[in-house]
């Protein structure tokens, strides 16, 4: 759907986007991540044709964004961080205006406006001035204008910024529903949101692509062949140390007594290659049970997308996938 090849954007001596190359496949939600100033918005503006590149090539559904600009832009619906709304218009007037700008055939305009209003759940606000809408509903109207014309690709820049938790959940669900018929590129600083809804993650640092992989693969990047098990156990440190002393696969045991002296918080570091496919949790349970050491909690610790993001953006490098870290 989208192919970006050796994309570079310079502002004088400052390089905002540095030799960026990636592909976006049909029917998936892509998360575009990076710190402030990393080059995300610049990249999105180039993809949508709002900004020219210094070097490189962008192809949208087979159309060069510069040589076939009109055809390429027809394939894209864009929601910038600040929705391009006119406060003095009603929702209905604004969407009809956008439909005309997008050159939707006259015979289809009214039906399409009604359909996208229903899709984004703003129908009951059709006659209300945009100035009088909440921020959440303004975002919905912004999404509606992006969907008008039913472009195969949607590019959404911070679609939930500034929203309250309820509005964020509603917009997140709306984006998921849109992914059934659109390929989506989503930029967000809310990493839990990206992890929850995106199929593939692109991470940019200092204008360079430092990671491109499926969400679940990125979350395994930092394990280095190890996993960690956190437990809360009622018992004495000596008993717990003895229980794990000769357990195969355990590389390290960290024990910390709580302030009341009743529970021990234990962190086990487990070498995956030594387990031979075994689930260490079963053996841990039976060992502690045999010694009458009650387990109050046991959790397998996983690296979050936030952990991976911080590691990659603090140590800039080349394109990575699971296994490179």
What's the count of strands? 14
What is the succession of H and E elements?
EEEHEEHEHHHEHEHEEHEHEEHEH
Major pleated sheet: 6 strands, mixed
What is the CATH superfamily label of the largest domain?
A: P-loop containing nucleotide triphosphate hydrolases
Can you count the helices? 11
Mean pLDDT: 88
Give unreliable regions as ranges.
Answer: none
Strand order of the largest sheet: 6-7-8-3-9-10
Q: What's the quaternary structure here?
A: single chain
Distance between the termini: 29 Å
Find the CATH topology of the largest domain. Answer: Rossmann fold
- The 3D shape can be described as elongated
What structural class do helix, strand and pairing data support? Answer: alpha/beta
Helical residue percent? 25-40%
User: How many domains make up the coordinates?
Assistant: 2
> What is the correct CATH architecture of the largest domain?
3-Layer(aba) Sandwich
The CATH class designation of the largest domain is: Alpha Beta
- The Cα radius of gyration reads 25 Å
What does this protein structure show overall?
The protein has eleven helices and 14 strands. It has 325 residues and is α/β, with parallel strands linked by helices. It has a six-stranded mixed β-sheet, with helices on both faces. A four-stranded antiparallel β-sheet has the order 2-1-4-5. Strands 12-13-11-14 form a four-stranded antiparallel β-sheet, covered by helices on one side. Strand 1 and strand 2 (14-24) form a beta hairpin. It has two domains: 2-218, P-loop containing nucleotide triphosphate hydrolases (Rossmann fold); 226-301, 2-Layer Sandwich (Alpha-Beta Plaits).
């Amino acid at each position: 759907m989208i192919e970006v090849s050796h994309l570079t954007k310079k502002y004088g001596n400052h390089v905002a986007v540095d030799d960026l190359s990636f592909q976006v496949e049909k029917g998936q939600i892509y998360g575009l991540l990076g710190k402030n100033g990393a080059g995300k918005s610049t990249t999105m503006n180039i993809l949508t044709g709002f900004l020219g590149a210094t070097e490189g090539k962008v192809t949208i559904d087979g159309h060069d964004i510069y040589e076939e600009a009109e055809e390429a832009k027809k394939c894209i619906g864009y929601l910038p961080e600040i929705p391009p709304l006119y406060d003095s218009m009603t929702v209905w007037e604004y969407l009809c205006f956008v439909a005309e700008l997008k050159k939707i055939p006259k015979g289809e305009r009214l039906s399409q406006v009604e359909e996208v209003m229903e899709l984004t759940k703003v129908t009951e606000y059709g006659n209300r001035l945009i100035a009088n809408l909440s921020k959440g509903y303004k975002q919905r109207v912004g999404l509606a204008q992006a969907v008008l014309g039913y472009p195969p690709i949607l590019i959404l820049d911070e679609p939930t910024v500034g929203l309250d938790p309820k509005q964020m959940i509603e917009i997140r669900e709306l984006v998921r529903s849109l992914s059934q018929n659109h390929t989506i590129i989503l930029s967000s600083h809310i990493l839990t949101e990206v992890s929850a809804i995106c199929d593939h993650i692109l991470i940019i640092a200092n204008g360079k692509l430092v990671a491109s992989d499926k969400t679940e693969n990125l979350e395994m990047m930092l394990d280095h062949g190890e996993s960690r098990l956190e437990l809360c156990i009622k018992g004495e440190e000596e008993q717990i140390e003895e229980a794990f002393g000769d357990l195969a696969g355990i590389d390290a045991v960290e024990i910390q007594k709580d302030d009341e002296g009743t529970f021990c918080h234990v962190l086990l570091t487990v070498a995956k290659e030594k387990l031979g496919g075994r689930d260490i949790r079963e053996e841990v349970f039976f060992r502690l049970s045999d010694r009458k050491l009650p387990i109050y909690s046991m959790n397998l610790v996983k690296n979050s997308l936030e952990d991976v993001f911080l590691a990659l953006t603090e140590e800039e490098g080349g394109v990575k996938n699971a296994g490179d870290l």
